[in-house]
Amino acid sequence: MSTTELAWFKSSYSGSSGDDCVEVAIAEQAVHVRDSKDVSRTPFVVGREGWEPFVRFVSGFSA
Fold this sequence. Notes:
The protein is globular and about 30 Å long. It is an alpha+beta fold. The chain contains one helix and four strands. It has one domain (3-59). Strands 1-2-3-4 form a four-stranded antiparallel β-sheet. The mean pLDDT is 82. The protein has one helix at residues 48-59; strands at residues 9-10, 22-26, 30-35, 44-47. It comes from Streptomyces fuscus.
């Protein structure tokens, strides 16, 4: 599946002011993550089984 065919949505971890937005698309085998301001780049991909540990890890950081 091409990344243009995925259903992207804004991550709940993104700020509400419209900047620094992270978009996520959930596919059958993986979760795709991209910067909403640079959608032409290849997204970061995490296997579905690794998604929860990944979110726990990155949510431990503060801006």
